[in-house]
Amino acid sequence: MVKSKVNNTYDFLIDKFKDYFLVSGEKKELKIVKLDNNGFHVIHDNKSFRVRVLEHDLQTKSFVVKVNEGTYKVNMKDENDLLMETLGIRNKTIPKSDVLKAPMPGLIVDIRITEGQKVIAGEPLIVLKAMKMENILKAPQDGVVKKILVEKNQKINKDAVILHF
Fold it and tell me: From residue 16, how far is each of 21, 30, 90, 130, 148 by CA, in Å?
């Protein structure tokens, strides 16, 4: 089960079964065809939808999705997130780190900060292109960027240290 919030307004509970989805208690039969790494064609009730993932942050489980001509921000919580929330345990207890590491191998396509710059948690720092998708790496906490160890157009491996706080 996944809980999603669209545009910080609409909540949905989604369960996926073999042949259908259950969306907030309603059975939805969807035909989904993957077009490429971030594009899909979806048919629901004989209506066609073009879906493209424009941005995603796997750490915060947030996405920007274009459906036909509309763009939507989607935040998701999986069963573990919901259980932790129910128990009153917040993700804010993550220990601070003095480094930002690459979550996957890829190519640095943009560096949005400079050494000595103060950053706040969630602020975009680096754009990493992997598998034809651009991934925005954000500040895990408030801090000051001490040293940037990568350059634009540099290929990096998974877990490579990108910068020091």
Answer: 5, 11, 26, 27, 42
Pick the CATH number of 95-164 from 3.40.50.720, 1.20.81.30, 2.40.50.100, 3.40.50.1380: 2.40.50.100
Beta strands 118-119; 143-144: pairing state: antiparallel
Domains of the chain, residue spans: 2-84, 95-164
pLDDT digits (tens, 9 = 90+) for 79-118: 877 777 777 666 554 556 789 999 889 999 999 999 999 9
Q: Give the residues across from 69 on adjacent strands.
A: none
- Is residue 3 within 8 Å of 11, Cβ to Cβ? yes
Helix or strand or coil: residue 80? Answer: helix
Helices (H), 3-153: 79-86
